[in-house]
Amino acid sequence: MPGLGCYSHAMKTPDKSVLPDACKRSVCPVASALDIVGDKWTLLVVRDLYMGKKTYSELQKSPENIPTNILADRLKRLQQAGIIDRQSYQTNPLRYAYRLTDKGRDLDRVLKAIVEWGNRHIPETMQIEDIDSLFPRLSE
After folding, report:
1. How many beta carbons lie within 10 A of that of residue 77, not counting itself?
2. Secondary structure of residue 86 in the 3-state scheme
3. What residues have CB less than 8 Å from 4, skipping those under 6 apart?
4. Could you give the CA distance from residue 45 to residue 28 in angstroms, rounded to a whole number?
5. What are phi and psi of 25, to 5 degrees?
6. CA–CA separation, 10 vs 100, rounded Å?
7. pLDDT 10s digits, 29-65
8. Pairing between β-strand 84-91 and β-strand 94-100 as defined by DSSP bridges
9. DSSP code string of 7-19
10. Of 29, 112, 39, 116, which is closest to residue 74 (Cα–Cα)?
11. Which of 6, 48, 82, 103 is 20 to 30 Å from 29 by CA-CA measure?
12. Rounded to an integer, what distance in angstroms lies between the CA atom of residue 68 and that of residue 32?
């Protein structure tokens, strides 16, 4: 696909030792991004953080019912990728509040593109006009 930056087998692959671990499978930016956010749960966690959810228990209450073990894993992965950070708000028991980093907030265009595609091709999805109030940065 021209313009997406994916390499062909005929092209020389750069030294993968200089790439972050998440990018070592491929130098294709699509494949590399999907390695980080390409499962069915990760962008939903990012969406919920955009919507103002901050704690594990708030994220757990999403309508998609993410299993607790998967939520814990996705939060850990997102933190390792620099997409979110966490700060403790309680010490006994230890609990964290999560927030998007600048890198995480840069996913707003990805979320908007997925919303627009869903509106266009999947009947009865929430319209972007209704979502704009939930995602103020998406309408910029």
Report:
1. 19
2. strand
3. 28, 29, 30
4. 24
5. -70, -35
6. 38
7. 999 899 999 999 999 999 999 989 999 999 999 999 9
8. antiparallel
9. PPTTSPPP-GGGS
10. 39
11. 48
12. 26
Residue 50 token pair: 């955009």
> CA-CA distance, 138 to 51, in Å (whole number)?
11
Secondary structure element (H or E) that encloses residue 121, with its range: helix 108-121
Rounded Cα gap, residues 88 and 127, in angstroms: 35
Distance CA(75)–CA(22), nearest Å, equals 15
Q: Cα 27 vs. chain centroid, distance in angstroms?
A: 19
Q: Give the pLDDT confidence of 92-138 residue by residue, as tens digits.
A: 999 999 999 999 999 999 998 999 999 999 998 888 777 766 555 55
Inter-residue contact 36 to 24 (CB < 8 Å): no
Q: What is the pTM of this model?
A: 0.78
Contact criterion met (CB below 8 Å) for 68 and 60: yes
